[in-house]
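PT: before anyone asks, these are the final sequences, not the draft ones from last week. 776 residues across everything. Please model them as a single complex and drop the result in this thread when it's through.
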Amino acid sequence: MRDVFIVGVSQTPVNKDAEVRDRYVGAAALKAALDDAGVAPARVGALYAGNMMSGTLARQQQLGALLADYAGLAGVEAVTLEAACASGAAAARMGYLSIAAGAHEIVAVCGVERMTHVDHDTVTRALATAADWELEGAGGESFLSLNAQLMRAYMSRYGVRAEDFAPFSINAHRNALTNPNALLHKAITCDDYLASRVVADPVRLFDASPICNGAAALVLASAEAAATLRRAPRVRIAGSAAATAPVALSRRADPLQLAAVEISTRRALAQARIEHRDVDIFELHDAYTIVCALSLESAGFAPPGRGTRLAVEGGIGLDGDLPLATFGGLKARGHPVGATGCYQLVEAYLQLGESAGANQVRGAERALVQNIGGTGATVVTHVLHRIA
Amino acid sequence: MRDVFIVGVSQTPVNKDAEVRDRYVGAAALKAALDDAGVAPARVGALYAGNMMSGTLARQQQLGALLADYAGLAGVEAVTLEAACASGAAAARMGYLSIAAGAHEIVAVCGVERMTHVDHDTVTRALATAADWELEGAGGESFLSLNAQLMRAYMSRYGVRAEDFAPFSINAHRNALTNPNALLHKAITCDDYLASRVVADPVRLFDASPICNGAAALVLASAEAAATLRRAPRVRIAGSAAATAPVALSRRADPLQLAAVEISTRRALAQARIEHRDVDIFELHDAYTIVCALSLESAGFAPPGRGTRLAVEGGIGLDGDLPLATFGGLKARGHPVGATGCYQLVEAYLQLGESAGANQVRGAERALVQNIGGTGATVVTHVLHRIA
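LR: through. Structure below.
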């Protein structure tokens, strides 16, 4: 496979502005990423869009072709990738594969989602399409209730308390304070966390990521194409892997083991030829604090039942052993679902390029970036390497 | 890029049985294709699903992971590709790229769609999400009305009459008679065509493809992997290309020129190193008869305004110069939208392998297979070669 580089990025501020439609915000993100890369639209061979709910919530499918038109990429190959909340990274992986294959030299990737133009019940029902409709959604389960199930089971099995999850949320909120693209700019304490409303026992408001809108974009290039750009490439996609598990929790051997996290992490690290101790940053999918704990365990950073210890012991801050959610994560930067995977990759790119400003993790050279669809059904994992 | 072969296929009979849900019919198609290839599930590296409307009509997204589970492909990479009615071929193209890149040795592709479990208005609205909602759908345009616009404009510009479109429909219905997987088994005459109800002037019932359900699947493999199977590969994907045009007709320079058909056909033929005269079969996207005429012209088989002449002059039958819709096409085999691109590839595979039975085009060695999303916004084109 050919080497693939990230040569430009952009992100729009995560927001709750219901008026800005996908095509405009997506096109703006794409144009900004191309500008950042110094790539003329005519050089772009393809556009891969990540989106989950435009068909359901905005009656608009075929976003790939639509965004290509509005971003000035007339004629290019374009398609939409859907894997629920992992749609953004799935789009990036397709971009990666198309260049690795030699089908294209330069491609654009855009994750976009709009969720706040409909009422809360409508978006809750739309999010439940990421679950198994027959076995979960039709019976009234929501995305929130399924994560509450996981959190209850985890607390019960391992004897973990509510406050043990707080550090994930506190860390995300702290890191978002200095991220102008984050939705939430509000530091929280453990007392704030414990005082926050229980939205679905035991999930508190501060365990859950907010409903919001956003778009982020990346430009990927082959080595040959990257060499022609005004700026030498700074980040290589050293590993890319995807894996799945049954969509319904009831069809998994153990719902507290995220098999697709385990498989895709192992493959991505192996492809990148690094080990866990080499990972400087883990941009994980903190849609809920329970997902942080499960991800750390299934990815191999902590033994079963010990995921929250990593956070309690303070190793997840910007200066910790394993910084998480360095720009605020899904929890505080926000989780516009189909866009999230692209935001994560953009943020990791900024970290490795030493362009993360106040959020910079010093000396970051290798980032693990993980985007999860559903309660762990689709997991797309990338490893980014800073170029020496 | 590495060579990619089709090593197994399957198709379920196109139907109007509303009870059979996507996961079961899709899994059945996948298992049958793996059986046909003689591939054990454990050897499959990824599953790419093509689907347009499951989220909207069945509240089920993340079909990739869902189908992987139900087809016994636990853990594999899986994702859903969406490009409206071109979703099936978009999934096949992703499978192609993943093997060409060297990321996988064997992958499965499945197109699936269920449309008959909801009322006619609901499916009409869902199909309109393939159009531009802001510029077309919100104003009341449906997929049918947009194709009627195209047909009116075409008849007016070129002085073509209604009966000139009849041969496309007659040919499709004739070929479907001997296809057990076709939805419609009814020969029609030009008189039948002209007597059929006008559903949106000038589109008659016999110009339009039916609303239906279906699933079709393919197994793709690298040369190395194909060599390990019980049957030597018979068909190679010699060309694969995708292109887009603006989604809304009003944003195109000339709606009667399908720019994405032109671009993707040119690229796919060039990659396969063949010319128009080398094409033995053209499985084109005959969702409406007007699309046949426009496709033949934009793909370069007929000059502008002369697409219907090819049909009138009788060259599109199984023994013609350019056989079209050899198993009945979208018109009579049926058009379960996200599955259609996979049915087309399966049929072309059967033709090149001389397994087409009563529908066999004698001596067919090269097939052009084209799947279109919307009114020409996304076009995915493949060239299949029979292996000498």
